[in-house]
Task: inverse folding
């Protein structure tokens, strides 16, 4: 029988369509039954029409159903893909704008820092609902593939409290892997021009890596090229690289100080540690404005907003466009289709997955969600033991893990005090704000996001009263007037139409890491 794959949050049009097409590149999966669900009927209708267009053009027998009824979509599903953005751009805007009033300047705000913590509060409430539906109506033993951020928090809650086997998936490891290949190519060809006699090209496939850590803070602890470990030469290569030396200053500084390269982009990484974004006047020293992902204030919010507005306008063009045929050459590096292929066909797939630690990384807590190497085949997902991370790398991860654990527990219980403690312990937020500022900032965000935080319903009236009292007494702290150290204006559709093809590709990518080849 054909398998069934359900997508929650399928209105993330470009990302859903990419994963849909990835699965269909596998011959044995071309009769898959797909079910898409989203609370936005308009987005759901668009992605359904685009994907049905793909099926018709490629003469494939796969079936596709789209419905706003989540339980209907999940009925009998063997695999569930979660790519939901709870609260949409409306909530996301408050994750960025309210912290700026207290001096917290974020680039992305979806994984850690105050924005990521509040995003987790919204997501976890819904993750438990998703898991209940999966337990009750999906196929027995179904697997939840979580792409939604904050990935570690969501995956932690689903496994521990949701009662559903869940793996978190991200493409950060692949992005840095490509960069490392380019750096090694630079080093092995010093003195030679590309295309000259003796020039050696180095691709990602030539370099074998082992990464370990936590999502968005995973470390390349082993880098093998031509039988030799190049880990110790990466700093030299990144400092010499004409592009990365300018765009990856924070990652290079972390490499210099900790000895290992980190998976996540310059802008993302800047939010997870306390050293690079705590003083507004110093932020531009560490970032690059050539691409939002390298550190722009509120960069992901800007491009997400532009992408949504552009897609809604440009949808008819997408329906008229001639898309490349579905085949191996168009398959992306997203892990999802390879995991399904491995489990269904027995073909071995090696990737890096977010799973409960359970002793894999021996100096990180067993209950944490770690991002580590794994193998998938018909027998399931197998995770080898990595051992100890280098002490400095483990310390960076442990700081974030404590914030994640407290955030998950706060979201489960609707515990405001624990939530505020989690924010106090967050490395960047704690470096910028004092406890009184954190109290008020969390209260302000609870009030602004009340509609997406059902577990805090009984606490929000008290938060409103505390804010009102602070303002009445002249003790309100959210008074910073700046718009951020490195913010750009959101472009209008008419402005983007001047370079239509570029923005069509940006909207097609539909998620941060695929908007730049070096993320």
Result:
């Amino acid at each position: 029988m054909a398998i069934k794959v359900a997508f929650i949050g399928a209105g993330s049009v470009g990302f859903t369509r990419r994963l849909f097409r990835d699965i269909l590149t596998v011959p044995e999966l071309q009769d898959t039954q797909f079910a898409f669900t989203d609370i936005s009927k308009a987005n759901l209708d668009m992605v359904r029409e685009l994907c049905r267009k793909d099926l018709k053009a490629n003469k494939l027998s796969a079936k596709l159903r789209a419905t706003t009824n989540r339980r209907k979509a999940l009925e009998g599903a063997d695999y569930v893909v979660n790519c939901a953005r709870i609260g949409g751009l409306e909530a996301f805007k408050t994750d960025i704008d309210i912290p700026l009033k207290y001096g917290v300047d974020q680039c992305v705000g979806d994984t850690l820092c105050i924005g990521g913590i509040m995003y987790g509060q919204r997501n976890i409430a819904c993750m438990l609902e998703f898991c209940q539906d999966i337990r009750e109506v999906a196929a027995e033993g179904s697997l939840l593939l979580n792409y939604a951020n904050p990935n570690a928090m969501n995956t932690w809650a689903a496994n521990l409290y949701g009662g559903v086997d869940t793996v978190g998936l991200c493409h950060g490891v692949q992005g840095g892997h490509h960069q490392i290949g380019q750096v090694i190519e630079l080093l092995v060809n010093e003195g030679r021009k590309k295309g000259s006699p003796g020039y050696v090209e180095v691709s990602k496939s030539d370099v074998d890596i082992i990464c370990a850590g936590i999502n968005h803070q995973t470390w390349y602890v082993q880098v093998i090229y031509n039988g030799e470990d190049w880990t110790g030469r990466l700093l030299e290569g990144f400092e010499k690289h004409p592009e990365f030396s300018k765009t990856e200053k924070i990652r290079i500084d972390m490499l210099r100080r900790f000895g290992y390269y980190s998976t996540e982009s310059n802008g993302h990484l800047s939010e997870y540690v306390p050293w690079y974004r705590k003083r507004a006047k110093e932020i531009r020293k560490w970032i690059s404005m050539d691409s939002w992902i390298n550190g722009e204030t509120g960069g992901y919010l800007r491009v997400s907003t532009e992408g949504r507005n552009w897609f809604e306008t440009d949808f008819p063009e997408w329906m008229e466009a001639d898309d490349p045929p579905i085949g191996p050459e168009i398959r992306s590096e997203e892990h999802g289709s390879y995991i399904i292929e491995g489990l269904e066909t027995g073909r071995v797939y090696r990737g890096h997955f977010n799973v409960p630690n359970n002793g894999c990384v021996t100096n990180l807590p067993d209950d944490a969600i770690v991002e580590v190497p794994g193998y998938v085949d018909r027998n399931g997902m197998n995770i080898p033991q990595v051992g100890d991370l280098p002490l400095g790398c483990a310390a960076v991860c442990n700081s974030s893990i404590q914030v994640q654990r407290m955030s998950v527990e706060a979201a489960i219980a609707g515990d405001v005090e624990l939530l505020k403690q989690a924010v106090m312990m967050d490395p960047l937020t704690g470096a910028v704000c004092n406890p009184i500022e954190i109290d008020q900032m969390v209260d302000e965000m609870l009030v602004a996001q009340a509609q997406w935080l059902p577990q805090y319903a009984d606490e929000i009236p008290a938060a409103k009263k505390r804010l009102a009292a602070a303002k009445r007494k002249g003790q309100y702290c959210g008074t910073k007037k700046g718009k951020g150290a490195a913010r750009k204006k959101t472009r209008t559709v008419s402005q983007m139409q001047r370079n239509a093809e570029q923005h069509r590709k940006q909207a097609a990518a539909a998620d941060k890491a695929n908007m730049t080849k070096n993320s």
About this structure: The chain is about 45% helix and 15% strand.
